[in-house]
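Budget justification note: compute hours in this period were largely spent on complex prediction jobs such as the one shown. Inputs:
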Amino acid sequence: MRLSFKRPEKFSVYWAEVMREMVSTGIGSLGIISIISVFIGAATTIQVAFQLSSPLVPLSIAGKIARDSTILEFSPTISALVLAGRVGSSIASQIGTMRVTEQIDALEIMGVNAPGYLIAPKIISCITMIPMLVIISIVLGMTGGYIACLFGGEVTPSDYVMGLRDGFDPLTIKVALVKAFFFGFIIASICAYQGFYTSGGALEVGQSATRGVVYSCVMVLFADLVITRLML
Amino acid sequence: MIEIKDIYKTFGDNDVLKGISATFHTGKNNLIIGGSGSGKTTLLKCIVGLHEPTKGKVFFEEENFTDMDFTERVPIRTQIGMLFQNSALFDSMTVEENIMFPLNLFTKQSHAEKLDRANFCLERVNLKDKNKLYPAELSGGMKKRVGIARALSMQPKYLFVDEPNSGLDPKTSIVIDDLINDLTSEYEMTTVIVTHDMNSVMGIGDHIIFLHQGQKWWEGSNKEIAHTDNKELNDFVFASKFMQAAKEKL
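Corresponding output:
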């Protein structure tokens, strides 16, 4: 980890690598994050409305609960779990393949700080792009809830929107972004570590990718608990 | 000149190298030969710093490379070119980008100058106009030649080559050997080649070290190898009937 953040040999080359990784992580994951966010937002709204089907509870409360659940838990955590699969496995297998095909040795022979060149751009990319993806996920999650109301009928769209606007606490967004930042760091660092210390061949690259995804999912859920406990 | 002194390398309980000393001369093809598992590649990796020797020292022009840390090694490493067994080209980069990569990191040349250098290196290995191809689009022999071109890009003083002929047909192997031989004498490089290809040994072996069970078993040139009475070396070099017949004619 210390070597990953050593001063780069040439800033411009590393910056280009950071940009490339940002496009790969951010733009590359936009599709899957959009799809799961809309569906989770819609399903959450329908379930909350189903559980609160009492004349004593105002229907707008469904929007409020769906909003807070989406911001605090569903968007950051489920996005992180999906990204651990998509981005994490790609990081571990990419670096692992470079290890077993001697590309990392080639970097070291040239005098390049291989952990810095390969790992730091991926960590920087994940800790910046995952919070952005989470913001998009939150917006799309709420949009999914609205669509569910529009076509479902359990809650009217106006009640849902009223619930979304009712008693909004900006702290929830702060918590979501802090979670996203740490989840990004966990996914990139664990998967890069697993890839970097791969030895053997194609089979071991696959095993490293699997280990990277499993360990980062577990650590994401653990970090989720710790951050929630500390901030709320 | 590269000098190695009393190199030992142990992995767990396995002693792979047992006290190897040698001098690799400038302007010559220095070959490290030996059977599978004799420690050739491990020795090469100890010399270039990919493995740290358990004991012993490596000197590049009398500079103690072994005792240097990563940052201290960088100036020597920029003078090293290496061709790996599987070429180790960066998959995500084109041929041209592969060759320009070390130039981008370690020189202040303009883009045009770097491009000129890349074109020169490609021309030198007879791969003109292949700049925009990706490694996946190249044949095994072409990959080796691009690997050599990348190794040459920084005008190295030292060239290390690991199994240059593995996976190549005999004709392409000779082309690669001749290319390495020409470049070594043309640029006055200290070239160290790990091989078990007998054509290379007989063709370009100016200075040969034979490893057996992790030890230096024999040292000499390709002219001396045919007349040695070293049993293990004879068993290795003249293992095939073809080579035995060739030896009898000598």
